[in-house]
Structure formats: structure tokens, C-alpha cells
Amino acid sequence: MQYLIGIDVGTTNTKAILYNLAGSALAKASQSYLLYQEEPEMAEEDPEEIFQATLRVIKTVILRAQVSGQDVVALCWSAQQHSLLALDYNYQPLSRVITWADNRAASLVQQLQKKGQALKIYQRTGLPIHPMGPIYKLLWLQQSQPHIFQQAAYWVGIKEYLIWRYTGQLQEEQSMAASTGLMDLKSLSWCPQLLDLAGITTAQLPPLVPITAQIKGIKNKYADLTGLNSQVITVMGATDGALSTLGLSGNQADTLTINIGTSAAVRTVTSQPKLDQQARLFCYPINQSHYLVGGPLNNGGIVFNWAKDALFGEQQTTASLLKTNDYELLNQIAATSPAGAHGLLFHPYLGGERAPLWDANARGSFYGLNRNHTRADMLRAVMEGIVFNIYDVATSLKHIVESPQQILATGGFVQSALGAQILADVFQTKISIPPIRESGCLAAMFLAKISLGLESDWQHLNRYRGEVTSFQPQLTSSQHYQELLPIYMRLRQQLTTEYANISAYQRKYQNEP
Ligand code: ADP
Fold first, then answer.
1. Which of 316, 399, 419, 420 registers the highest number of CB atoms within 10 A of its CB?
2. Domain that holds residue 351
């Protein structure tokens, strides 16, 4: 027997799944690590902690599957986008990894936006105008941490660093490079003008390779530590967004994928680059004929968790008494309020917002409260607000996927039947939920098969995905949402004028008891 490992390096944890060549998952493991947020807007991770986590999950899946690591033929990597790490001449990290969630480059982005340069970067690369982009992080580091900037011999993301640790080869695949803001969207090569702007050279970046590229063999010491064969093939892999979208949609242009996990994303795959005139959508090449287009949102399930704690903290005890889990109980409570939550609206921008607002100062709000509203209404309004926000982003994708033939939704939020039903009712169309949670690992395994010549067509991934559960729109609920959505949209326009003021006030007094 031969096996494959799909490994997915996320923001809060790394997951690995060991599969047989028929695509059945034999064992899973995950390992979490810290996100360092010691100062406002900072979000860093320790590259060594992540590396150790990958060693552990690989070793664990081999042990749990009770197979010989010598029979693992390939491992393939999926990873978070937009991370940045400085290495010295000996490839040693000079800092922690700056993740996508780090907003310290925000004021610099505003300056470039005023000068019109940020829009040019978008048009050249498909990277939305936001401090998450490594090009902006480089400019910020140049100003704020010049000692690191000057010492840096190489600039990489976390995936390139991990693959270097295992194999000794520094390479970057194109889907990950696309999200740096340094790669030209059309030529799929590093863009000399943008490198100049960022103050770096091509020699400081890894050479670019396709997502299917292979590296033969890993270092003996890591083969010994994990149980892998030292001849195992590393398939470069791709970003988690690219892999899960290709994996779910089977590369069909008329399919929209929606992920509502901690954050959220609406994505589709196109065969041509599709830029948005207002720069609201990303457009990341995966290869010459596939482009990932969509919008990333900050406020997914994390907002539901806020509502859980802020509105229902004490209900956890009730949940344990009832022997049901918190989410089940909360879904039952929210379901006691009707569609539209008795006219209560919620704008969910608690963590600032990327798409559709691209405003780090955005804040959340309830609108329409009256004396009859209950906590159940508030909870339902929160769930509906999360979905309205996603619908808002999907609307900006209309010129790309006019009438999606298929909407596939994943992530913790749609594990709730109520969450999935609200999605179907707001979108007024059937929503399909695949049974698998770890689409990143699955798609990485499938990419390994493509790279090894064992598969040729992404649509075949459907075979491994399992039967979807479908939710049909309900007429009465949909009608309520059709009435409320225009109010929600108009309010979202009107509220934007005060976000800078209220967030400035919050920052000013944030340390007061
Ligand atoms: P991640 O993006 O971090 O991998 P997940 O896909 O596991 O996250 O989703 C986690 C989010 O899903 C949580 O923030 C939580 O709010 C939400 N969630 C999980 N289970 C449920 C549920 N049964 N009902 C509603 N929301 C849920």
C-alpha cells in the first residue's frame, strides 16, 4: 500500500490527514499554536512553533493510521495566505511571522491609496488594498523596523519556510506568490517595478514554480523524527483559499463557494483574470488558466462566538446541564425568533471589515431595537447579519458569476441547520453543504495525485467529497429578507461616515478600567 499526506497550515492550527491512494482518510491530527498580539493591530506567529506542530501532526497521523511512514509517497502543503518572514543569509528567521491578520501597515496603505499607488498595485497583482498584503508589510518594516529590513537576505511566507526546513530547497509556488502583491498577474513572475517599490530584489525572493512542482526527498533528521521516508516527495501545494475552492467547486466557473469559519470568504474560479473596478475583490492566479476571484471577510463565526459570550455567557451551564453543546442550544434559542428577528438588523463589523467595506475602523451595530426585542431576536439578528454581509460581498461578484448554478458552503457556521437555512433564504437559492470539514487537506491530497499523474481533472475530487446536504429556500423567510436587505444596505452606506470617529474614541480610552 502507498499513502499521501495533505497538510494544512492555518492561522490557529495545523492539520494533517493521511490518505490511501483511493482517497480515503485513514487518520487525522491537528496541533494549535499561539497568535502573538502584544500590541494593537499586531498578529504574529512563531515559525519554530509552527514547524514543531507540523512535525508532530505528520508523526501522529502515521502512528494513528498504523501504517509505515516509509510507504508515504508524497506530502502536499496547503497554507494561510499573506504571511511574511525575514530570513538571514543562513536562512535563520530574523523575526516572527507577520500574518494576514496583522494591521500595522494600515496608515501606510492609506497614504499609498491617496497617492493612487495602491490601486496600481491592485491592477498589477490582484491584491486588494489592505495591510494584509506582504508588499505593504515590507514597506511598513522598512520604516518601523529598519534593522530587520536591512539584515534580511530572503523574504518568504510560512509555507516556503516550512518546505525549506524539510527539504533544504527554497521555492515559492504561484498561488502563494499571487497573494504577496509582488507577482505580476499576467506574466506570473515577480514584478521588478513592485520589488523596487518595496525596496527588495528578485535574489531575495524564492524562485517561482507551479503548484504541482515537486521536491524529491527530505532531510534525514526529519525523516527520522516523523517516520517519513527520506525519499518522500514534497508537492509544493497552494494557498488554503485556492485549494479549498478548487476542491469544492471542481473548477467549475458557475460555482460559488462560501466559507463561514472564524472569518469568511466568497470565492469562485475563473479562466481569465477578473479585476474589480472598485478593487473590492481579490484576483489571484493559481496558474495560467485558473484565477481565484472573491472577497475575504473578517466577520464570520467569530461574531457568533462574541454573541454567545456577550449575550448568553451563563447559558453554558444550562447547556452542560441539558447535555447539549453550546452551539446546539444557541441555535435552538435563535430559532425561537422568526426570520427578520422582528425587524432587528445587525451589521457585523466587530473586527473592522475587509470585503465589502475595506475599512479597518468599521464597527458593529444593532439597528431597529424596540422594547419587545429579546435576546433570542438579538442572536437571530447576529446570525442574519453575518449572512447579509456575505450576501453583500457575493453581490459584488455578480459581474463574474451572474447566476451561480451551484453554491457550496463550508465552515463551522453552516454545520448549524439554522445557519445553512438562513443562507439559503437570503440567497434565495439552494445551498449545498459537503460533509467534509478539512477541505484544505483533502484538496492538498488531490493536488498531490495530480502532480504524481494519478489524477487529471479537479472535478474528480467530487468522488472523495461525499454526499452534500442541501437546503432549499423557504418562501416566507426569503420574502422577509428581501424586505430587510435594502434597509440593511442603505444603513451600511450611512454608517460608514462615523466609523473613524467611534473607533478613534475606542482607541483613545481602550486602556481605561
Ligand atoms: P476555522 O475557520 O477557524 O477553521 P471553523 O470552520 O471550525 O473555523 O468554524 C468555527 C466557527 O464556526 C466558530 O467561530 C463558531 O462560531 C462557528 N460554529 C461552529 N459550530 C457551529 C454551530 N453548530 N452553529 C453555529 N456556528 C457554529
1. 419
2. 250-280+287-441+470-506
